[in-house]
Amino acid sequence: MQEFSGKTIVVTGGASGVGFALCNRFGKEGMNVVVADIEQKALDKAVDTLKSSGINAIGVVTDVTSAASVENLAAKAYGSFGNVHVLCNNAGVGVKEADRKIWALSANDWNWGYSVNVMGIANGIRAFVPKMLAAGLEGHIINTTSFNGGCIAFPTTPIYASSKAAVTSLTEVLYAQLSKESSKLKVHLLFPGPHMVNTQILASQRNRQAEFQDDVKVDDYMTMEDLKKSALGANVEFQLTEPVEVADACFDGVCNNNFWIRPYLDSHQAMITARCDSVLTNSNPAVM
């Protein structure tokens, strides 16, 4: 799709971080923007900011762990603008994992992480793809994954990494199936980076739904040292990527019809190669 003006984009997790940057980037191309987020206050602020920039935007409170809530999002988007041309399944959460072992993480930690990061995307696909196929229009589905899990797994983040590995696999399957079903509907896998993205994902505990809460409260990451540990360890050089950089790369990737939207091709190549070599040679993986 090369012409975006007058068409409609839906972005989950759209009130902040990468999601908001995507809303803003595509909105500047003249698209109608449907901002979906679980947090009403942040959603209202995001929509007001977009409107003040001349972008035609609406907000829909959405809990992506709920199929009914995502179906309501689709109904509001189609009811407001007639069609949806770009869907960004972007909502994601980070569980505080860096100081806990995989066997010490609670069932609710796992259920919450997977319900948002994996089932949130599955619910988006189920709610929107049949309608997009029925419309027979050019369109794009963009699923947000991570280098962490999508390519290799950081040992400090078992829930996050494994959930993003699932996102990568299900998006490859979606690509294969839609390639046979429709030449007009394209699929993309977005890898934010190359460094940890400057977002609020590690403060997502504030929106943890009641059914996923534990008796023992786990606070969010609060310090730079915690942020470092959630990446490659406290001793690495710590840098941040800004959400606007991710949104620019995403827009370019959509225009170029790239499935893999991973603009940092030189970074992390050695780790990807090492993992692939381990598989191909049946050798034990290196421990980070």
TrEMBL record:
Keywords: Oxidoreductase. It comes from the Bacteria. The keyword Hydrolase does not apply. Transmembrane segments: none annotated. Pfam families: adh_short (PF00106). The keyword Oxidoreductase applies. Belongs to the short-chain dehydrogenases/reductases (SDR) family. This is SDR family NAD(P)-dependent oxidoreductase. It comes from Zhongshania aquimaris.
